[in-house]
Predict the 3D structure of the following.
Amino acid sequence: MKIALGQINPTVGDFSGNAAKIIQFAHQARSAGAGLILFPELAVSGYPPRDLVERPSFVVRSRATVERIAAETQGITVICGTVTPAEAESGKKVMNSAALLREGRVDFIQSKMLLPTYDVFDEARNFAPAKSQQLFSFCGKQMALTICEDAWNDKRFWNRRLYRIDPVEELVRAGGNFVLNISASPFWLGKRELRRDMLTAIAQNQNVPVAMVNQVGGNDSLVFDGSSLVIAPDGRVIAQAKSFEEDLIYFDSEKLSGNMHPQVEGEEASAYEALVLGTRDYVHKCGFLRAIIGLSGGIDSALTASIAADALGPENVIGVGMPGPYSSPGSIDDARALANNLKIRFELLSIRDIYEAARLTLAPVFAGLPEDVTEENIQSRTRGMLLMAMSNKFGALVLSTGNKSELAVGYCTLYGDMVGGLAVISDVPKTLVYRLSAYVNSRRKIIPEATIKKPPSAELRPDQKDSDSLPPYDVLDAILEDFVEESCSAEQIARAHNFDPDLVRRVIRMVERSEYKRQQAAPGIKISAKAFGYGRRFPIAAKAEV
């Protein structure tokens, strides 16, 4: 039997658009001779729908859309993810389900058993778990149909399991001889390799083929890489779809052979493609066509502009240079050169007059007080005001340019450089910013060499450098990775890297004091195992021992 995997990019709540994609891919697969096509988890509604599932109309539209898909895809069996009503006694209104559509009707439904409640996942908030699971027959096979997390609890793969049961193991024990998994598994660096290893372990441990179709695209902070796979019982990858784009692949369930489409390889290339996809989908799915970026001449705004130009097209990106009293001529030249290299529109708006007017207005209140960070923040907030004014006038989304290292320690200004609708590189540590910039220039010289080589500076006071306030970025990022992503203590971090314990504690205090800033920041694109945002939930008003 020829089986297809329909790796699509759905939009949350766009039932008609998602249905059109499903129907189109199903028709194409039917024309190619496939008898079955799989689509991702909650493909009908888009994932993650979050509290939208609390609306009765959402469930009604899900059901109507599934019935429409069934009616319009006769001649091929379709499996797609959808929302179904839950049993009343569960306390939840809906279930996360997979519907099998055959001969114009819904022929079988299997709901998700394992509901993740860690990191960015909070499915137990919205869904009731399935109480049981069943196999279904298809072309002589006993198919075990699972949904994403249902496959993530193999006791022979994980040192510590999160759930008491293993749906895959139970289905195979019941006679299943082919595992199907429909997923919406978000991307982070290293996730594709982990996912492949885990599925390979299932195929080998259970001695069954495993086919996984994964969602692709960006929804809010999450990026889904696709990278759908089919793995033979001996662990061979016999079919794979592309990464970071829609794809349709086929495999033969008897011969265990199929399409092998190329995937993005390498950490820098993968991170960059994820950021481009996340930016494109966030801007477009939020109803915008264009973006505005403040270009400082620094490496963070240069990388952000490069991502935006690749995501949206250079004709849809506006770069704005906003020199102030301490901006160097070289920074203005670098910003203009970057814009020329990217072929984006460039505007130059001086903030000097507005800054001086603000100082003059505040002079009576500040009389006798020395200049400090206040005057620096006035400059940053003036730039934010100008960017938002252009956003309003041109209907373009402002992309903020702060990196993860700065956001972690609060080296950023609320209502200043933090303004915007999307923080593109807020999950990119400064050291990775340099690596990604080198990757950009390895393809084509875009970012000026001076931008890469000069010491990082906010240029908000004479001769200012980031190193005046922060440790070297290689030291800072090592501390942040251990503390933010691994939850290591100050003592563990200092011992592991031979760092000064007082320095480590100072950095940790900066992280904890800056929580109020991060919770007011624009959403960012998650590419690490632990990003700032709704996958990392800490109180603002708290006293923690360091």
